[in-house]
């Protein structure tokens, strides 16, 4: 099953839904997506280290493969096209370029170095382990930037399948849980300071919510530092998405796709500009604190809904058919990056 989120234009089913004047064709599927997201959000309050995004993915896959609901494809297309882009744009409202500047040159060097290293190493490991398809790129992007959000952003650009998306996200979140349960104890055993641990967690853990949780388990100052470092790291999603779009366009040689420039323009994640614009507005103080916080909360829920949509389109047999190698690559990459991050934090004397 090819990915349903690779289209550069609005889903045809969405347009058809409005043309009839009746209930849009995407309504039943979108309703199910939102229901799963709400349930996952509620259950997430009681599941400890397992976040609501993982629950939404699991619930969605369970429904898809056991109940096999009909008539939801248009709704999931709507979710994975419009809802995803809206969520990414709104995430910008939680970013401040002032916070990026305050991290200091040493921390910025740490973040940029690790992001580039993670992406390159992910591709190298994917080739060494002979991973098929796009999953190596997805795991590299998720480890480099911000876990599920990066995977969901890069996936449509490179034409990843839904099974590859789900597998990559599952791999990233599995390591996140391990990090949350072990990193604070490791940090204390190594005698790390609050700032050093926050920098380590902010660069070595992937999903934003788990980064924040891991930092605050170690200490309040570490949690604040980890949050700033992680948000700074998230800003690099913009150049990563643009570079991936350009590289993918350059490597696409089908005659019908036109010139490299045309392919690049088609592959370009234009909604990233909305992400940058929202971050700029937030930096200029256009959004009152309560508005920025509300937009960030909405973005968080929409990401949960997107994961529900991904789950509702995953064929577990195909996902299992990818084999254990992508999971091994994901954990190996995350472990290597954890050591690299710790070494650079110490080398750069971040205290």
Ranges where pLDDT stays below 50 over 5 or more residues in a row are 1-9, 13-20
Number of helices: 18
Count of β-strands? 0
Helix content: over 70%
If you average the pLDDT, what whole number results?
A: 81
Shape: globular
Structure report:
By secondary structure, this protein is mainly α. It has a domain at 96-290 and 324-347. It is 75% helix and 0% strand. It has 18 helices and no strands. The chain has helices spanning 12-19, 27-43, 52-67, 73-91, 97-102, 104-128, 135-144, 148-158, 162-189, 194-204, 208-218, 220-235, 237-250, 260-267, 271-283, 289-311, 316-320, 325-347. The longest helix is centred in the middle third of the chain and has 28 residues, at 162-189. The protein is globular, with a radius of gyration of 20 Å. The model is unreliable at 1-9 and 13-20 (pLDDT under 50).
Architecture blueprint of SSEs:
Layout: H1 12-19, H2 27-43, H3 52-67, H4 73-91, H5 97-102, H6 104-128, H7 135-144, H8 148-158, H9 162-189, H10 194-204, H11 208-218, H12 220-235, H13 237-250, H14 260-267, H15 271-283, H16 289-311, H17 316-320, H18 325-347
Quick overview of this protein structure:
The chain has 351 residues and is mainly alpha-helical. The protein has helices spanning 12-19, 27-43, 52-67, 73-91, 97-102, 104-128, 135-144, 148-158, 162-189, 194-204, 208-218, 220-235, 237-250, 260-267, 271-283, 289-311, 316-320, 325-347. α2 (27-43) crosses α16, α4 (73-91) packs parallel to α15 (271-283) and α13 packs antiparallel against α14 (260-267).
